[in-house]
Amino acid sequence: DTALQKPREVFRLPTDLTAYDNRLCASMHFSSATWVTLSDGTGRLYFIKSGKRGNTASEKWEIMFNEELGNPFIIAHSVSFVKSGVHSVAVLLLRVEKDELDTKGSGFHVTLEWLTVAEISKEGDHRHEIFKRRVLQGKSVPHYAAIEPSGDGLMIVSYKPFKFVQDEDDKLEENDDAETTNEKRDPLYYWQQTEDDVTIAVHIPQDITKDDIKVHFSPDNICVRLKDQPPLMEGTLYSSVDHESCTWIIRDNKSLEISLIKKNEGSQWPELILGDTRGEFIMDSSQRSEISDSLMHLTSEVMNPNPEKEKPPCNAQELEECDAFLEDSASLCRFDGDTLKVTHIIHLGSNQYLFSVVGDPKEMPCFCLRHDVDALLWQPHPDQPENMWEHIATFNALGYVQASKQDKKFMACAPDYSFAALCECLRRVFIYRQPAPLSTVLYNRKEGRQVGQVAKQLVATLEANDPILGFQATTERLFVLTTKTLFLIKVNSGN
Question: CS domain location, by residue (predicted)?
């Protein structure tokens, strides 16, 4: 069960990479059962058709796309999907680049390039071309970054936030929109109120006469038109009015004054027309004084007039470092691929990220977070906006145990969640099985009760002192890669 067959070569990079300076390690990701994405570490990306892997008679892998994409990168994630009859592969490329503008920080920033390559058919010729390129930038390497199976969105768990970097044309358009928005516009109308009525003043052009103005009152609505133009004011009033008593007049040929009689006398309106922000409320001195008096009980001239009371106010000087909320604490974000905006964000706080695992190849990778002493596994569901992350498994006390392993390097779990495992930098591998029923009777003497389930810890020591470079779990086995050897550990359910 732990014997490996002789390796068989399926692909060889076509170029000699030893001549390249500053190259990274090659990286690859299995996009689907038949597609592979590969980086040679020099900045070149390959899309490879592997055929049905696992078949001993499978042919060698075939390059379907390769292109130089600038600075070296590693592949963070990739997916293969078909949309509208067109096959596409989306891939996330991770780079750490120098940032000349960052003079106070590390001097580097992290970029995630979200690349979509689609199959193009022209005159019977089938080839793959880059269809879309998007770039996100942040200040920390993401713990977790994965593209949704449909290619429509992206999820990131990171300590520092990421945001999309726009093209120059998009930046110019955004700046123009921002300038337009930031320009201070004069209010369309001014309004004030008493306990009995509301008065509205609307500026009108000088050439407008009384016959050009049409004002329609109803118990809950108002509509003001000038000539045959679209409504100047229209909408639902905050509260009902006595529409038969409402009036309007023209003041000095410059403004239209409208008087509304409140049906509920004594009530204060926080707004005139629901959702309309084009007006400005004018408050008189008596109203200001009344509001100030109503808030007097919430203020004091003394910093802490009663320090011995049951619930004293918070004193920031007594807070410890662990009580402070970190501005850049780890967060889980979901980005929309069309709008390039965040649709969901969750601040993880003290829920430390532990590892990720592919439970179902048709779903996004799961991620594991520490919750108190336990480790909880979460499955993203991008097609369920109201319930996007589902708790699917718990590893009891794993959060506490892994914190004690100072030399921990990798963590993983079985796709069926039957066990979790971690390895140190050298030699030792720890396996934590889920609680399982006992075949014999076991009593807890201190509590005087029968124990129904027991969780076991297994420790494996490799017969090599070489650094561990890779760690992967399947349902029954653990693969541990060192600089010289690939170890296969059988995790027997009977152990």
Answer: 184-273
